[in-house]
Write a structure and sequence with these properties.
Oligomer: single chain
Number of helices: 3
Structural class: mainly alpha
Strand content: under 5%
Largest sheet: none
Order of helices and strands: HHH
Length: 55
């Protein structure tokens, strides 16, 4: 029987349920669903300031 890393399994399940949050392959490290929930909860104003800093 194959053993699957729990984090890897969680990432796969999350990608299937939320395809719009799929990562670009190799672009960024793997995230757990908890990391995604933190990103989603981040206020839009905070997101904008982060984007401005990147530019």
């Amino acid at each position: 029987m194959l053993t699957v890393d729990p984090v890897e399994r969680a990432n796969a399940d999350y990608s299937i349920k939320h395809p719009w949050l799929r990562k670009h392959n190799g672009a960024r490290p793997q995230y757990s669903p908890l990391d995604f929930s933190n990103e989603v909860i981040t206020p839009i104003t905070e997101q904008k300031s982060i984007n401005e800093m990147r530019n």
